[in-house]
Amino acid sequence: MRAVIAEDLALLRDGLIRLLTAHDVEVVAAIADGPSVLGALVEHRPDVAVLDVRLPPTFTNEGLLAAIEARKHVPGLPILVLSQYVEPLYARELLSDQRGGVGYLLKDRVMDVGQFVDAVRRVAAGGTVMDPEVVSQLLAKRARDAPLGQLTPREREVLALMAEGRSNAAVATELIVSEKAVSKHIGNIFMKLDLPPSDDDNRRVRAVLTYLNS
Amino acid sequence: MNEPAGRQEAALSRRVRDRVGRWSLLALRSIGSALGTKSERPPKSRLARIARRAASFGIVCALVLTVIWALTGARYFWPGWIWFLLVLPDATRLTVRRALRTSIRRSLAVHAAIALVIAASLVAIWLLSSHRYFWPIWPILALVLVFAGHALFVPSASNSREQALAERVDVLTRTREDALDVQVAEMRRVERDLHDGAQARLVSLGMSLGMADELLDSDPDEARRLLAEARTAAGDALGDLRAVVRGILPPVLADRGLAGAVQALVVASPIPVEMTVELPAERLPPPVESAAYFAVAEAVANVIKHSEARSAWVRVRHIDGLLSMVVEDDGRGGADPHSGSGLRGIEHRLGAFDGTLQISSPSGGPTVVTMEVPCARLSPKT
Question: How many Å lie between the alpha carbon of B313 and the closest alpha carbon of chain A?
């Protein structure tokens, strides 16, 4: 798997390269500033890009803007955005093109190496990975809203874990239920959110989108 | 004994000589500058130059006439009139200028200065015309009466500007104190948050790592457990730091400015909030932006916490140098602006920018919080 990373702090950049290389991800380009990100992504067309939100020269949100712009040039380009803080507004902007292959995680998650690498792989495979922090902020917000209001508490838990990009098996482990029960919950969620049948991955993305955009 | 006395005498005479020399030098210099031969500070305008020339010419004439008077030996000192006319404009100018320098009741001070000059002139005329009867007493009496009238009745009507200034000083003093109080409280909160949160967690992280290091060989399982603990502590410390940063300057405000930050508030709100933002493309000055954001955030938080509203509206606009923010809800109303510390803090924070906060919240709703900050200057580029 080939990856492009963008991170301005040398310490973290080297750490990311070491971490990804150790897990059989080849880092084809490591960028330290905002303006070069777009060019590198379009040029290398990596299997996945890992971008820091805050990059030089303005140190605001050029990583995020570059990600959105790059996905306009290369639709569906898998991008995982890392940040010191998460903002549901930014999550919504990242997901607004309604395609999968998007991740938005706190930098802290790098500390759990296994889960982080797993998230990178899931984004590369076209999945959607939202930080639990985004999910919990939105859980607090959406509890009263329709159509999410129709979901049972258990279904909302399942949807939250789906938004974090977990597979059915991972959701089952987390909630200590059988995988079959999880599939049943997911079926109910799709039905209640009125998502027409299509391939399962796409429906998962759209369920998460409903979650974020309602 | 003699010698020191002689020396003393010499010293004294030297001192006298010095003083005489200095005085004569000063006199020469002043005459010189009056004649315009040597001017240390060049006069500013053409009019001032002409006035200076005229004054120099007048002094020369007066000196010449005084010499003539001395030579003719007349008893009556008629050149006094010339000196009087010569001194009058400068005396008037200096007195009035001095009066203008006063900061309170300035019009009264100027009036007093003019009256004083007129009275002094009248006395001078009386002296020069050598009348027995002291007639200037009548006009001076009239001047005093007019001045007393001015001092008693006019100030209340005409000193609105001074009154406004005094009020402004009061407001500035109060808002500055409030702003400083808010700032000190804020710093104390940040200090406490860091101390109880991130710092404590980093200490525990260091301890876990140290213990893991010791146990690495003897008890690898325990060491692994401690390492996992250290990782959790690091994550918690980061979470605490994030919360502190959000309280100081929310990252989305730094990234996107007021419009983006208000939008983020709306996205995160558990109740539907309708938002209208009319802001210029340029960013507002950061301190105003920050105060405005925290004001809107506090008002929206109050809606969510207390109002039981089903929906809310946020309007932010910047028109004619006035930034206005209105937060409205359809909740139960009855909000008391003086009960919560949050709104008072916002009022103080806005007060530092001459901003105001008004709440209309009849029982049964709706609640409308209107906040305004005058803000004409926009920062060119952030």
Answer: 17
